[in-house]
Amino acid sequence: MGDVLITENTTGPAVDALRKSFDVTFEPELWKSPEKLKRLIPEFRAIIVRNQTQVNAELIGAAKRLLVIGRSGVGLDNIDMKAAGDAGIVVAFAPEQNSISVAELVLGLMLSMARKIPAADRSTRGGAWDRQTFLGVELYGKTLGVVGLGRIGYLTAMRARAFGMDIVAHDNFVNPDAFTVAESRAKLVGLDELLAAADFVSCHVPETPQTVGMFGYEQFSRMKPAAFFLNTSRGKVVDEDGLLRAMREKKIAGAALDVRAKEPPVRGELEAMENVVLMPHVAAFTREAQDRVVECVCRDVAAVLGGGAAKNAANFPKPRRSV
Questions:
Q1: Predicted confidence pLDDT, tens digits, the chain (323 residues)
Q2: CB contact at 8 A, 207 and 238
Q3: How far apart are CA 98 and CA 95, in angstroms?
Q4: I want to staple 157 with a disulfide (CB 3.0 to 4.6 A). Which of 102, 161, 184, 246 is the partner?
Q5: How many CA atoms lie within 13 A of 128 on its CB side?
Q6: Is the C-alpha dihedral spanning 182, 227, 262, 295 positive or negative?
Q7: Which residues are catalytic?
Q8: Where are the domains positioned within the chain?
Q9: Residue 323: how many other CB atoms lie within 10 Å
Q10: C-alpha closest to that of 97 among 149, 146, 48, 151
């Protein structure tokens, strides 16, 4: 029997501290072997995962001793929240600890597309000195459309303000008098109005039944032909076939994707396009963010195993089961 099972590459001082008080088993490749994970999970009182481990109802059903699931990140789409709740298991996560890193990457991707940085780098490394091909555009004076004005969307908007950008935002769950709206000076609009107005559209919504496929060919067709689309949220929010069609037909000028519908993706036409910037789901992967995320989750896991309450619980702070 053990205390904590870590199924992905989660390390650092917070994990070392956890080892001092609890029996921690570290298997960073275990997420690739669901059957092995199912065999091991009955032995543990806690599991710490990132986004690759599928904590589904079947796994939760096998976890007879489990008190807490620690999610090293903000997204919960790889965890069956209903099954966890029905079983009385706490789901602890890191709701805002990586927000700054994601927002900073969005600005980096915007600059990369506006100034054609990846393509210019490849061309120059190849021996060319082709200045005219890489004529870019400024962020100053442009309009950023933020879809989802939560913590990350807000931080992105505030940084875009520093570049002299105007902000329009779409979020069905944000009140017009919310501080995120007031501080960012965002104009709350419907999605269609945002798509028509924005020079850059940045997506910051969770994966839910309502948001899967939220951006498809129809939505991209409503954007300006000179506009750029960015997604650092969840891959399934975008219909990649629709995006590819829109790119082929020059409905938009370019796209930047940190997340994909299937990860890792199968190499296809998007990978061959010069006006697409692709990243391997690393928006939150900075040293600072990862230290904060792991510290947050390990602290809550330790608290629950010690009989206390999780500070960042997605459902309830204390287990509702006895083992």
A1: 799 999 999 999 999 999 999 999 999 999 999 999 999 999 999 999 999 999 999 999 999 999 999 999 998 999 999 999 999 999 999 999 999 999 999 999 999 999 999 999 999 999 999 999 999 999 999 999 999 999 999 999 999 999 999 999 999 999 999 999 999 999 999 999 999 999 999 999 999 999 999 999 999 999 999 999 999 999 999 999 999 999 999 999 999 999 999 999 999 999 999 999 999 999 999 999 999 999 999 999 999 999 999 999 999 999 999 87
A2: no
A3: 8
A4: 184
A5: 12
A6: negative
A7: 234, 263, 281
A8: 4-97+287-305, 99-278
A9: 10
A10: 151
- Cα–Cα separations (whole angstroms), residue 311 to 70, 95, 122, 292, 294: 12, 11, 46, 14, 14
Q: In the structure encoding, which two tokens stand for residue 15, read together?
A: 């994990």
Q: 243 to each of 115, 190, 193, 250, how far by Cα in Å?
A: 21, 21, 19, 10
- pTM (two decimals): 0.89
The CATH homologous superfamily to which domain 4-97+287-305 belongs is: NAD(P)-binding Rossmann-like Domain (3.40.50.720)
Cα angle 160, 162, 167 (rounded to 5 degrees) comes to: 40
**Burial bucket for residue 80 (CB in 10 Å: 0-12, 13-18, 19+):** buried
